[in-house]
Amino acid sequence: MTGFDAIATHLPVLTVVLPLIAGFLTPIVGWIDRRLPWYWVMFATLVILLITLSNLATVINSGTIHYKLGGWNPPFGIEYVIDLLNGFVCLIIAFIGFMVSIYSKESVKKEVPGKTTQFYSVFLLLITGLMGITITGDIFNFYVFLEISSLTAYALIAMGDRGDGVVASFNYLIMGTVAASFILLGIGYLYAVTGTLNMADMHNLLPDIYTNKVVLAALAFFMAGFSIKVGLFPLHAWLPDAYTHAPSTASALIAGLMTKVGVYAMVRFMFSVFTPAFVIDVNMTEILTWAAALAIIMGSVFAIAQSDIKRMLAYSSISQIGYILLGFGLVNVIGITGGLLHIMNHAFMKCALFLVAGAIFYKTDIRNIYQFQGLGKKMPVTTIVFLIAALSMIGVPGTVGFTSKWYLALGSIEANQWIFVAVILVSSLLNIVYFWRIFDNIWFGHPHEIENIKRDEAPLTMLIPMVILAILCIFFGFFSRYPIEQIFDPLAKTLLGLGGVP
Amino acid sequence: MATEIQSITPLLAVLVSMIASVLILAFGKYPNIREGWTFVAAFIKFGLVISMLPLILKGDVITCTVVEMLPNLPIAFKVDAFGILFAITSSFLWIFVSSYSIGYMRSLNEHAQTRYFFCFAIALSSAVGIAFSANLVTLFLFYELLTISTYPLVAHIETPEAISAGRKYLTYLMIAGVSLLFSILVVYHYTGTTEFSFAGIAGMETIPQTTLVILFITFMIGCAKAAFMPLHAWLPAAMIAPTPVSALLHAVAVVKAGVFTAVRVILYVYGVDLMHDSGLWLYMAYFVSITIILASIYALMQDNLKKRLAYSTVSQLSYIVLGAVLITPHGITGGMLHIPYHAFMKITLFMCAGALIVTAKKENISDMNGIARQMPITMLAFTVGALGMIGMPPVGGYITKWFLLLGAAELHSMILVAVLLVSAILNAAYFFPVIYVAFFKKPDHELAYKEAPLTMLVPLVVTAIISIIIGIWPDAPGMFLDIVEIAVANVTGGI
Amino acid sequence: MTGIVDIVYAEYNYWIYVTLMMIGFYAMIAKKNLIKKIIGANIFQTAIFLFYISLADITGGTAPILVGGHGGEHVEHAADVIYTNPVPHVLILTAIVVSVSTTAVALALIIRIYNEYGSLDEDVILAARKSLQPEFSEYARQKDVAEVNHQ
């Protein structure tokens, strides 16, 4: 099977190139037949999913993959490095992309009428950008893909609500440009003092020059830029508008992925470019944990005040990003494991929730939670998915949300930061407040009015990904042990420089 | 010594009603078949639980590890004497309450019956799950599941008052859940495990004293299901639920899960020695004594019969915890024994109250003049239950009171003895008026004989009779006393 | 005094780019007109490009083409020939492309915003958005809740 082997060696770059080419070919596919792009996108994302699975399997079995673009050796050439962190995040991107692409058929037809082909094209390009950010080992290449993903996100959001979508996209553009420019500046500083653009090379060169103020400035610019990209409170102002006014498919994709990839970038820079010792030394991790704790509480508090379900979920995302960053900021093995777990868990939970919001909007045109009466009877499967995902966000044991909360709280105790334990537990209670009133509206109250409501469930293409995600929420709630032992635990140890990668 | 036997019976016992709940949902349109599933599940569950009894009586322990959820945190079951005590109580009583529920719901032609039976089945699953939990994490899982599955039952009638009562219920119990999670985290952090063990979890002694006390407080807040004052307010509020819910859940499953957890923490996490050495037993004893007295006084002031019974429950639950913290064999026996004994008596009382609501349409005691002429059998059963609560032979309550008094006396604590005696008097003070009003007061207008429907009458008579049997013949082989003796021996190590 | 002047003189390129960057940043944030924001973004990014390119320059360096290399003969790569660094230039070419694309997207968005709201002033657009979304304003929400409770 030499043909397959030949492809197999190039799988890392195919992860990025495939969605790129698919994205560019989508308009042609759409020109052939209006209905084809959906199949095309599904097929493309499925293939990418298989590729990322294969990458991750290879990494687990044989260690980090190094791929030289064009055969040029690093540090002169661009290198794609896939280790456990990359492999895992790529898999999440591909999986959520696949799920959302199945879902998108009916949703996109309704919400972006007449522009479905363009939507799918930009969709694939967004996946390209995200994959590129994750997989690259060169910091300028990283900037390029960052901008690709940002631009495509702006375009996707602008296809949403009339007027609101465009304004939200513009605000996001301004803030995103600031963020990307800061990152570019940071890259420039690092290049100025090390002379290399390769991440691994920098990791070796930087420790000698940590006393140089330029390196400190670079770290500051990076963290500022990433904080804006990730939506860390208080630099989150673009997030609620962008998530609310994007089309439902785009919301699900962006909410499930973009902030995670931003977190990945933060982690990659904090731990693999700058070493953990340096980051702890300059108190960056402490600032991060306090900002994260603030984000956790403020996100939940704002969410309680919302009546639009997508806006509520957007503020909830701000809170969840706080969880993830808290885990990484604690800089102990348990905390980082918790952060990594929550990347996976939040992708599942939030994506499912946004898909449900989109399904409800598709069927009933309602986004105001106070108008959800009788939905339990009308769309039983959808609302059960919502129940499972919301219980998972609350942190009920047996669901996936509990596992990451457990690790995060345990990590906080280990780091002797009892206040963060209190923050995590209090935010669980706040989550209950804003989710439970939706349950009340969906299933309880006004029994006489809803007697005549008939079953009118969302279409099958929308139901399948929602149900799959809900099942995964419960499955990984019970069987998290395997990913933790295989991926997250050794990864946490590697990030901290404690060894442990197989 | 106890040998550990591997078996999936505990897992099956828990899963039976979960599977039944799905079937209940599926057959929602066919009421008779749907109710049939409830009965089938109840009988099978009880059968499975009883099948494990002979092994437990021999002193063995049945274990079953379901899945290792996180590294070092398994979801596992371990059936020991204390666990099977609670499991037998709840699964046996489910059979009766199911029959009672059917009568109640059909008489009132209630809406959303499918949801009701569905949530009931899951709630019973959770209760048995709590009973059989091998470690704190499994217990926490079923604890939260119990809260979530009982919310639709509390808010069943869906009026604004019901929803706000449901919110109150949820607030108290979710805060409790969070507090319990915090306590579990701390235990895991210090000891590396959350597994219950007969002598308390090893490594708990390493915790500094102040942390130990704070941890105990957070544990007890976590057991808000046990309705300690001041965390009791959810229980009277939850009386807005249909009476079968009040009967089983708020007299048997939910509140007993709370005290069960509290006793598990006291005896199987902290352990008898640690409780004694840290002096926590005395503080807790005083704390629950306040609840015992105060709740009885509140009960005196209630006119609504269900609310009066609710406060009575609050008071009686603290008996159980009091027994456990009187860390002597007699004290613990009294506490543990009160779990099934109180369950039988209280469920009789609640079922009578429900019968009164359905048949005579009366909720308040002041309306119940001479009601015994209309419903003599119901009121007779009520009297049996009331006598038991006061502690009069031959109904079972006197046995547990006797053990508690012995335990308090052994510790030379005159205050606790006084508390027990005063509360007995208070119990009499709030139960006798009901009996007096029902039997001896002249009714406002002529009342013809019209008893509750048979589906409701039979269960409450049976539980009343059982209350008498366990009072006359506590030593019956395989009866609760035997089980409790083994449990106490486990915990005290034969002191 | 001489110390400061020396510093400013020696590193004047950095001072220039910092000033430009701050002008651009200020424009992006403080200006109300959307076009001015985009112009600010461009200035901001241009400042960063200047920084990179100023990094590339080495005193006394010549263009980074191998001296005497054209024609294919073997060239003496003597260490005595100093070349300026070509890499930042390459990076900036990419970054300029990115900046142009961003500007293009931004301008497209601005056209759409103008078609929808008829104005390019941020305050006017904000007011228009609030008034177009009655069902999510606070008063409407309270009205909803009141209706729901009275039914």
Briefly note the structural class of the backbone of chain C: mainly alpha
Average per-residue pLDDT of chain B, rounded, comes to 84
Order of helical and strand elements of chain B: EHHHEEHHHHHHHHHHHHHHHH
User: In angstroms, what separates the terminal alpha carbons of chain C?
Assistant: 79 Å
Topology diagram in text:
The complex is a heterotrimer of chains A (502), B (495) and C (151).
Chain A: H1 2-9, H2 11-32, H3 36-62, E1 65-68, E2 79-82, H4 84-111, H5 116-135, H6 139-158, H7 164-194, H8 199-205, H9 213-230, H10 238-245, H11 248-273, H12 276-281, H13 284-304, H14 309-329, H15 333-364, H16 375-378, H17 380-394, H18 400-414, H19 418-443, H20 460-478, H21 481-495
Chain B: E1 4-6, H1 9-26, H2 31-51, H3 53-57, E2 61-70, E3 73-79, H4 81-108, H5 113-132, H6 136-154, H7 160-191, H8 209-222, H9 234-237, H10 243-270, H11 272-277, H12 280-300, H13 305-325, H14 329-360, H15 376-390, H16 397-410, H17 414-440, H18 454-472, H19 480-492
Parallel strand pairs in B: 1-2
Antiparallel strand pairs in B: 2-3
Helix pairs in contact in B: 1-2, 1-5, 2-4, 4-5, 4-10, 4-14, 4-18, 4-19, 5-6, 5-10, 6-7, 6-10, 7-8, 10-13, 10-14, 12-13, 12-17, 13-14, 14-15, 14-16, 14-18, 14-19, 15-17, 15-18, 16-17
Chain C: H1 2-10, H2 12-30, H3 34-56, H4 87-117, H5 122-132, H6 138-150
Helix pairs in contact in C: 2-3, 3-4
In short:
The complex is a heterotrimer of chains A (502), B (495) and C (151). Chain A has 502 residues and is an all-alpha fold. Helices cover 77% and strands 2% of the residues of chain A.
Tell me about this structure.
The complex is a heterotrimer of chains A (502), B (495) and C (151). Chain A has 21 helices and two strands. Chain A has helices at 2-9, 11-32, 36-62, 84-111, 116-135, 139-158, 164-194, 199-205, 213-230, 238-245, 248-273, 276-281, 284-304, 309-329, 333-364, 375-378, 380-394, 400-414, 418-443, 460-478, 481-495, and strands spanning 65-68, 79-82. With 495 residues, chain B is mainly alpha-helical. In chain B, helix 4 runs antiparallel to helix 5 (113-132), helix 4 (81-108) packs antiparallel against helix 10 and helix 10 runs antiparallel to helix 14. The longest helix of chain B is centred in the middle third of the chain and has 32 residues, at 160-191. Chain B is globular, with a radius of gyration of 21 Å. Chain C has 151 residues and is an all-alpha fold. The longest helix of chain C has 31 residues, at 87-117. The N and C termini of chain C lie far apart (79 Å). Chain A binds chain C through residues 140, 143-144, 147, 150-151, 154-155, 158, 162-164, 166-167, 169-170, 173-174, 177-178, 180-181, 184-185, 188, 191-192, 197, 307-308, 311, 368, 370-371, 373, 445-446, 449, and chain C through 25, 28, 34, 37, 41, 44-45, 48, 51-52, 55, 87-88, 91, 94-95, 98, 101-102, 105-106, 109-110, 112-113, 116-117, 125, 128-129, 132-133, 135-136, 141, 144-145, 148, 151.
